[in-house]
Amino acid sequence: MANPKRAYSENVSGTFFVDDTCIDCDLCRQIAPAVFTEDDDHSIVYRQPETPIEAHRAAMALVACPTGSIGTRSKIDIKTAAAAYPELIEENVYFCGFASPNSYGAASYIILRPEGNVLIDSPRFARTLVGRLEELGGVSLMVFSHRDDVADHEKFHEHFECRRIVHRADSRGINAEELIDGQDLLALDKDLLVVPVPGHTRGHIVLLYRDKYLFTGDHLAWSDSRRGLIAFRD
What we know:
Layout: E1 16-18, H1 27-31, E2 36-39, E3 42-45, H2 52-64, E4 70-72, H3 78-83, E5 87-90, E6 93-95, E7 109-111, E8 118-120, H4 127-135, E9 141-143, H5 153-160, E10 163-167, E11 178-180, E12 186-189, E13 192-196, E14 205-209, E15 213-215, E16 220-223, E17 228-231
Parallel strand pairs: 8-9, 9-10, 10-11
Antiparallel strand pairs: 1-4, 2-3, 5-6, 6-7, 7-8, 12-13, 13-14, 14-15, 16-17
């Protein structure tokens, strides 16, 4: 839980604040850009919510924060914010929120499919999220982009009895049911294609869904300075 006594002085006064436990994972700035921004090596509140929608987005950022670094000085509707996850992105692709400190706040996604839902990388094992995933049909398969973003995978595996897939080069300490070998493309199903992209880690992969949605893990990221996508070499 965020501590107002440790709140950054750069936060504007008001309900929401960020304290000095922030790890600069960027999630809050993606979820509620009207409220949070980057300041040096951490996030701050640069503007308090002015509308119900902005307040809801800020509360969703609080819920998603992996380190509990976002707090409020008055009561807010956390229950509704938590229930907003998984959040629909487009069609049947959802953002899970509830990031884990064990994966440095990495984003996790779920694809809803008649053949079985696919969870890409692991979110935090939070009861609210797990309950929503159950309502959406559970999890049949977990695909890990690389070894850094496996977080609470054991708990999800035990709860949903789902199969886990990771590249062999990144499999140490992960008791996955299926290992990917080599650098060849691998079709998991007619709509799921694994593309090995060694670089950030030896066993990093990206997952292409329906030739439209590419889940890139830590291989690609948005660069504010370049105003475009960049690839990580390490």
